[in-house]
Amino acid sequence: MTATNEAATAAAECTDGQCANEDHHHGYILDKERYLARLRRIEGQARGIHRMVQEERYCIDILTQVSALTKSLEGVAVGLLEDHVRHCVIDAAADGDPEEKLREATDAIRRLL
């Protein structure tokens, strides 16, 4: 069995985000540490906004930070979506049954918009 076929088989065994095959990994796994670092920065941004409200800072300054936090979260979301398409959708297509994974990706895009 080729690596592509093995990946497709593993992808086919995943339902609702749960994998029956312990060898299967989600598309973001190769960048997991980078995602975790970005999420830690986002947590820091959220704590900073919280502190700004506690300190009764100027509204526009808070809104500027909220905007930056939103962009940071959108960046993580787009990266995860790209990883999903590059890994899960492509693997499902190689297995000949991409419809469910394409629907998941489309639904995720719809939620982001």
The separation of the N and C termini measures: 39 Å
In total, the number of domains comes to: 1
Task: Count the beta strands.
Answer: 2
Overall pLDDT confidence: 82
Question: What is the string of helix and strand elements?
Answer: HEEHHH
Structural summary, described in words:
By secondary structure, the chain is mainly alpha-helical. It has a single domain (3-112), classed as Metal-sensitive repressor, helix protomer (Methane Monooxygenase Hydroxylase, Chain G, domain 1). Helix content is 73%, strand content 4%. The chain contains four helices and two strands; from the N terminus they run H-E-E-H-H-H. The protein has helices at 3-12, 32-54, 59-94, 99-112, and strands at 14-15, 18-19. The protein has a two-stranded antiparallel sheet with strand order 1-2. A hairpin with a 2-residue loop joins strand 1 (14-15) and strand 2 (18-19). Helix 1 (3-12) crosses helix 3 and helix 3 (59-94) runs antiparallel to helix 4 (99-112). The longest helix is centred in the C-terminal third of the chain and has 36 residues, at 59-94. 8% of the residues are buried. Mean pLDDT is 82; it is low at 1-22.
Main traits of this protein?
single chain, 113 residues, mainly alpha, Methane Monooxygenase Hydroxylase, Chain G, domain 1, two-stranded antiparallel sheet, 4 helices, 2 strands
Topology:
Blueprint: H1 3-12, E1 14-15, E2 18-19, H2 32-54, H3 59-94, H4 99-112
Tell me briefly what this model is.
Strand 1 (14-15) and strand 2 (18-19) form a beta hairpin. This protein has helices spanning 3-12, 32-54, 59-94, 99-112; strands at 14-15, 18-19. It is built from four helices and two strands; from the N terminus they run αββααα.
